[in-house]
Design goal:
2 domains; globular; 22% strand; 4-stranded mixed β-sheet
């Protein structure tokens, strides 16, 4: 069993559960198919599982490391964005909504996506390589956002919280009576969700 499944915290775990999306952070495994670094590049992307009939052997030497996600909401929480190549239409829609949700950066559709990746890198990884999180009111968060409650990752959807697991979500619970909770989904993605981008959620 390989360590290639991504959690909402951005961590890589071993699990027999299969994912719905493929991801890439560059070459982060060694010749023994062991994860040796959390990332190699700043362009963290989310890809479709099948594209133009291509077939890849998992974790080939010196090839980018195949990562997997339960759903797109999990991928966004971990800090990944849609791939430009295999998800071109999704990528264009992502970029359009990201720009509208984050006007403070004064980017436009001609801005290289690498500029967005630079911002995302600061939103997902701290200097000590821990996961970046920030506090926010539940009432201010849109569907598709991940929060931490009782030290566990929960997905917010339609005023309920759903506990994440590698195999899927547990039955939703009512929103807890708390003022603020840590948010795992990068802030600029949350801004994007708030203006109408709806990530795929496996609920």
């Amino acid at each position: 069993m390989l360590q290639n499944r991504v959690t909402p915290f951005g961590q890589l775990i071993k699990t027999p559960a299969r994912g719905a999306w493929l991801g890439n952070r560059g070459v982060i495994h060694n010749a023994d198919k062991e994860i040796v670094r959390p990332f190699k590049i700043k362009a963290w992307i989310t890809c479709v599982l099948e594209f133009r009939g291509r077939h890849r052997e998992i974790m080939q030497p010196d090839r980018w490391t195949e990562l997997f996600f339960l759903d797109e909401a999990t991928a966004f929480s971990a800090g990944h964005r849609p791939c430009f190549q295999c998800r071109y239409k999704d990528h264009q829609r992502f970029k359009e909504f990201w720009l509208k949700g984050n006007p403070q950066y004064d980017f436009d559709m001609k801005t290289p996506v690498s500029k967005i990746d630079e911002i995302l890198q600061t939103e997902r990884i701290a200097a000590d390589r821990s996961k970046v999180a920030y506090e926010e009111k539940l009432s201010a968060l849109p569907n598709g956002t991940f929060v931490v409650y009782n030290d566990r990752p929960y997905l917010l959807k339609d005023d309920r919280l759903y506990l994440w697991s590698p195999a899927g979500y547990e039955r939703g619970i009512a929103l807890p009576d708390v003022d603020m909770l840590p948010v795992l989904t990068p802030r600029s993605f949350v801004n994007m969700f708030s203006i109408g981008y709806v990530p795929q959620m496996g609920i």
